[in-house]
Amino acid sequence: ATKSSLSTVCEPLGPDRPVWFPGTAPPPWLDGSLPGDFGFDPLGFGSEPESLRWFAQAELMHGRWAMLAAAGILVPEILHKWGFMEEFSWYTAGEREYFADPLTLFVTQVALMGWVEGRRWMDYLNPGSVDIEPRFPNRKNPTPDVGYPGGLWFDWGNWGRGSPEPVMVLRTKEIKNGRLAMLAFVGFWFQAVYTGQGPLDNLSAHLADPGHCNIFSVRSRTHMVGYLTLHCQYGLLL
Q1: 177 is in an annotated binding site
Q2: 87 known member of a binding site
Q3: 219 labelled ligand-binding
Q4: Residue 148: CB atoms within 10 Å
Q5: Alpha-carbon distance 187 to 92, whole Å?
Q6: Separation of alpha carbons 228 and 202, rounded Å
Q7: Which residue among 94, 145, 150, 151 sits deepest, i.e. has the most Cβ atoms within 10 Å of its Cβ?
Q8: In this structure, how many other beta carbons lie within 10 angstroms of the beta carbon of residue 28?
């Protein structure tokens, strides 16, 4: 494919591609054509082509949501520590008062997300069927891969078009960061439940006294889960 191509489809990688454990042979249905494919599917969930296609899209979307969630948890806590905003806990955000009542906000969110998810679902069933700029209905975007809409709103830098190699690198980075964010979000949630503190507070406590504030010196359930997830925070912040 060239930069003028209408679509960029990642090609299968060679037999010397990296795998999740050195020396292991990836299953035949994982040929390296999917971003983030390191040949790990011990239970054979992706052995059916349609299941593999579905799981790949599910992981992609959950990873993107998790990256947004992790940023939405960390940024307010950072801004609070810097004195730019009042204390705001993501875990208790639903208890705060907003410009509208909770039912109105819920219905509005369902309507907006329903429209977006409906378009994404139709694009999954019939790729390219909804790939039209709303303001320019007579001009279609270049035909994208499912899950990568492209166009002015989603790829203004045109990074997702061109030869397969750099596109595969960028998509693999996205998947790897999404996987890390999903693990980090689970850690953030457990910390909020068991410690009542944010991830940065838990991380600061560990860095201030790593000899005592670590998994091996845990004495109560309150702190155990928080320290178990420190590795997720390190990876996300670095």
Answers
A1: yes
A2: no
A3: no
A4: 18
A5: 16
A6: 11
A7: 150
A8: 7
CA distance 64 to 123: 18
Please tell me whether 48 is known to bind a ligand: no
Top pLDDT among 20 and 128 is at: 20
- Does pLDDT of 86 surpass 70? yes
pLDDT digits (tens, 9 = 90+) for 98-147: 889 889 999 999 999 999 899 889 888 888 777 666 565 555 555 668 88
Task: For residue 183, give every residue at least 6 positions away whose Cβ sits within 8 Å of its Cβ, in sequence order, or none.
Answer: 229, 232
Domain positions in the chain: 49-197
Two tokens at 44?
A: 């054979």
Residue 202 marked in a binding site: no
Could you tell me which CATH class the domain 49-197 is placed in? mainly alpha
DSSP bridge partners of 132 = 140
Structure tokens given for 170: 């960028």
- At residue 75, the 3 state secondary structure works out as helix
Residue 191 in marked binding region: yes
**Residue 2, Ramachandran bin (φ over 0: left; ψ between -120 and 50: alpha; else beta):** beta
**pLDDT tens track for 173-196:** 999 999 999 999 998 988 888 778
User: At residue 80, what are phi and psi to the nearest 5 degrees?
Assistant: -65, -40
Q: Is 140 annotated as a binding residue?
A: no
Tokens 């702190």 belong to 223
179 assigned to a ligand binding site: yes
CB 207 within 8 A of CB 49: no
